[in-house]
Amino acid sequence: MDPKMDSGMGEPVYTLDEQLEMNSLPLDSSLSQSQILTLMDQLLNCEVTWYSGYSLAQTILTCLYAHRPSIVTTPWLQSYIKGVLETCGFIRDIILRARIFEEEDFQTPLFGLDLGPVSIPPSKKKKPSDKDESTKDDTKATSALLIEAEEFLMKSIKHFKDGAPDGSIESLEIGEALLARIKFCRSFLLVATNACRAAVTIAPSQVTAADTSKKKFDLRKKVIAALQTCNKAIKIGISQIPLISASSGLNSPLPDGIFQPKVGRRLQGHTPTRVIPIMSTENSLEFLGKLLNNLSEISNFVTFSEFTENFEEEPELHFSLPNILHFFSQMSSKNPDIIYRSLSMILFTSTAGKKIMGTIPISKIVKESMINFEIPKKQIQRCHCCCFC
């Protein structure tokens, strides 16, 4: 058959297991640190391309290391890959909970890829199972791996600056570049984890009409605490983006075999056959910077607005309808991505019977805004005169 008529014709495509059997997959131990930088950046580009609406098989799964991170022996690279996968898992959970995405917005099929644990709590009627406990442990384990990699690189950089390099990094610039990517990965994972925790806290299964005001207040308190942690991590992540961009020139070309753009043809289920263009590092960092700034806005709006000034004293939080309308108006003008839209809808309208933060009815906010609305005195006088004309 003519190769132009059949996309499966041409060069053969091998899976991870087949490449390991043939010893044709370049091992991470054979890569230089500048090549590891390239791998990290390319995996980040694949991650952002997936967020923009392409299939997992065309993006993250093109990296064979992502199929089984345990084959990676370099500590900071293995922790980075695991961090990326778990971040994707938490963000996927947020988008699925919001249920507002279209097919062109986001692709949910995993094609057998394990994105790591997602901290979905069990139902109220069930006791926590061993699986739920292991999920929490796995999440902490990945964060701990990233912290260990970060501390190791910081020590190596310090030794290098003191004139006594320990040989663990090739140069000061490469060490700082690796550290910036590890810090960003850990902060982005923390953002996704706490955003998912906030979404889970106010899920319909966790909030019922019979709940007392004290319990609802405690739920809102947990959401605000999660978003405050999220906001702190956002600041760290944003601070690393310029460092990643500035050090992208240190990258070296990767050997063939680590990224297989056509590997989707060998995966289970129906996968797209065509090869898509992956985002550049510059566009990926721009996307992530915009996303983090947007998530920071919603975190600040919920945690630091006027209705939370007396948070500890007041048993009820009062939202202002004009402020909410202004927030959504500003959000719509920015052409927001699916992640920002999903988290906004979860916090304000889409869960627990259209209640803000799962506990405050929107109808109550509308009524209070109507009651508190003040008509200008001149307008009243004008209406009064018209009535007697």
The helix content is 55-70%
Helix-strand pattern: HHHHHHHHHHEEHH
Tell me how many strands there are: 2
Poorly predicted regions: 119-135, 306-317
The backbone outline, from C-alpha atoms, is: globular
Using only CA atoms, what is the Rg? Answer: 25 Å
What's the overall average pLDDT, rounded? Answer: 80
Number of helices: 12
Into which percentage range does the β-strand content fall?
under 5%
Give the N-terminus to C-terminus distance in angstroms: 89 Å
Strand ordering within the main sheet: 1-2
Structural class: mainly alpha
Key traits:
about 400 residues, mainly alpha, two-stranded antiparallel ribbon, 12 helices, 2 strands, about 55% helix
What features would you describe in this structure?
The chain is mainly α and 389 residues long. Helix content is 57%, strand content 1%. It contains 12 helices and 2 strands, in the order H-H-H-H-H-H-H-H-H-H-E-E-H-H. It has helices at 16-22, 33-51, 64-67, 75-98, 130-161, 172-201, 213-246, 281-304, 321-333, 338-348, 362-372, 377-387, and strands at 355-356, 360-361. A two-stranded antiparallel ribbon has the order 1-2. A hairpin with a 3-residue loop joins strand 1 (355-356) and strand 2. The longest helix has 34 residues, at 213-246.
